[in-house]
Structures are given as C-alpha cells and as structure tokens.
Design a protein that fits this description.
alpha+beta; two-stranded antiparallel sheet; seven-stranded antiparallel β-sheet; DUF1707 domain-containing protein; TerB-like; 9 strands; 2 domains
Length: 272
C-alpha cells in the first residue's frame, strides 16, 4: 500500500469514527429527553422505568452508554424532587431506584447530605405526627407534650444611645430702624436611639398547648389560643399575644432552623 493509500485509508477511518461518535451522541441526546420527561415531577414510576429500558433498547444504547450520563441524570432528578425544599419517602425511593438503574451506589449520589436531611425533616414535620422531644426541667401541664426545642435569645427594644444636639441662636438682620428679624434659632435637645438587644438566653420550646421561652434571666409563655399574630424572620420569630403590650421577639442561635420552627408553629396553631 502506497503512502497515499495509507493516508486515504486513515482519513476514511477517521470519518467513520467521527460519524459513529456523532450518531452515539444523537442517540444519547434522545435518551436524555426520555429521562427528562420521566424525572420532571421528581418521582419515577414503574411505567416510566419500563419506558427508559425500552428507549435504551430501541436506541441501541449499552449500559456503559447510559452510565456515562448517570451523574447529570441523578442531579436533574434530585433537583426536580427537592424543588419545593421537601423530600418525601416516595421521592427518596424513586431516587434510590434511579441510582440502581444507572448502577450508581446510593452513597455516591451527588447531593448535599445535610441539605437532604433538612428537606426530609421539613416534609415529616408537615405530613407526619410531630416528634416528641425531651425538655429537662420544664414543668408540663396535664396533657401537654413538647414537640420542638430551639436555642435562642429573647430580645427587647431598648435605648442604645443618647446624644445631645445643641441649639442655635440663629442670626438677625435689620429691616427698619429699631426693628430686627431673627431666623434659624432653636433649642438643644436630647436624641435617643433604640434597638433590639438580647435580655435573656435560653430555649424556645413549642408544645401542643403553649409557646415557651425559658431564659437565664427572663422567661415568657403563652397559650396558642391567645396568640393573635406570628411573624417569621430569617433568623427569628415575633409573636403577638392578647393582653400583652409588646410582642415576644426571639432570635434563633441557628438561623438555618427558622423554616423548621415556622412549620412546627404553623402545625401547632392550626391544631390548637
């Protein structure tokens, strides 16, 4: 074989390989579409698993072919399942089955484990019986059950700074003989600035009957039936109670638990 023939042969072989790679990519893209439809709602049903297997067979894809895209598929399924920041048992089983389908060990699923635990807990708090927690030292009433305890601090609006703003005699000018006009004069005054300051550190306890803050310096408690308004913030909660002039303000030690406290409070108020 001449040098020219070898060059032509190598070129044709390269063309064939490029064409095969392009065809494989096309078939993988078609399979991606089937996968996307299956995981769109966060749960893959048995029928959808059958559809995945049939699509793989019709497209002539090997297990090695589909395993090449398993990482992106699992991430896509995980995103769909936790879009609402909740992880139900059904969604979790579906993710495990999808990982098995793609031969991906469960401990290698690309996910933030702490975040998944939080999403799982939020789902359980909304749909399952509330947990019962131990609160040593808390005197419970008959039929009272504590369901959550969260470290935090009781806040109160207080004066945090005072300053004096001096007066001014202003200035005057003559407008006629024996008559002067004075402008700009004012007396000095004390200006106060207020802010929220921690007055007691302790634990926010949520029971089926009351919201309780047990602090090292001050404690407050109110029955859910007397709560008239609740505002949840990124790092705390404000509770307004009948016959109480000022609302109860509590800042959480861990701001990441604000949503968890909000879910528990919502359940307890609605069930009170």
């Amino acid at each position: 074989m001449s040098v020219w023939d070898r060059i032509v042969h190598a070129y044709r072989a390269l063309q064939t390989e490029v064409a095969r790679a392009a065809e494989r990519q096309r078939r993988l893209n078609e399979f991606r579409k089937v996968v996307a439809a299956a995981v769109a709602d966060g749960v893959v049903t048995l029928d959808e698993f059958d559809a995945l297997r049939e699509a793989q067979r019709q497209l002539g894809l090997t297990d090695a072919d589909v395993q090449a895209i398993r990482g992106e598929v699992i991430r896509q399924a995980l995103q769909a399942a936790t879009e609402d920041k909740r992880l139900s048992p059904e969604e979790e089983r579906s993710l495990q089955q999808l990982a098995e389908y793609f031969d991906l060990p469960a401990d290698q699923i690309p996910a933030n484990r702490e975040q998944l635990d939080r999403y799982r807990l939020l789902y359980q708090l909304e749909h399952e019986p509330l947990p019962v927690v131990m609160v040593p030292g808390l005197v419970l009433r008959r039929g009272e059950t504590p369901h959550w305890s969260e470290p935090g601090e009781l806040l109160e609006e207080r004066v945090i700074n005072r300053r004096y703003e001096g007066g001014s005699s202003g200035f005057s000018f003559r407008i006629a003989k024996g008559v002067r006009y004075r402008v700009g004069g004012h007396r000095g005054r004390i200006v106060t600035e207020t802010g929220l300051v921690p007055i007691s550190r302790g634990d926010l306890v949520l029971t089926n009957r009351r919201i309780v803050f047990r602090g090292d310096r001050r404690s407050v408690a109110a029955e859910w039936t007397k709560v008239i308004d609740v505002s949840l913030y990124l790092d705390g909660i404000k509770v307004s109670v009948t016959n109480r002039a000022k609302p109860v303000l509590i800042r959480f030690a861990d701001s990441r638990n604000a949503e968890i406290v909000g879910v528990v409070v919502s359940r307890l108020i609605n069930e009170a």
